[in-house]
Amino acid sequence: MESSGSKIHDMFDQDAVRSLGWQFADACNLRDSEAFRQLWIPDGIWTIGEPLPFVGKGVDAIVSAFDGLLAQWEYFIQLPHAPVVQIDGDEAESRWTVAEEARSPDCETGYSNMGYYQDRIVRTPTGWKYAARTYTYLYLDTTPQSGNAYPRPPLRSLIS
Question: pTM for this structure?
């Protein structure tokens, strides 16, 4: 029988792994390269599938790709949903349903997609980090978007 202490430890691990996914979306939405960098182990792998394939190996390549991908959009928002997490000691797997919206600065290209991430995550001395993250598209629409986009307000502390 599992002890209540190990159940509590499992709950903390589950929460920490889910938090990693929320932090990933927050870094994307805020275009925060340094926060994004902190989510990966040094030799992590980020894979994006067809129809816009990409494979980044190593945290420097991953962050460079992150910056390049976001630079093409006037705005970008990622909305992660329904995380499923499986923990096995110091390793974990997670799966997230994701929706993303973006638009090019010239308003000629929209970006509306739905897909999912499948992740391999490892516990490090500084917390849970991505070892591998793979995105699979389920839907993509690049029709121009006609709505209004607004500048992001300056960031402020979440605790102030």
Answer: 0.91
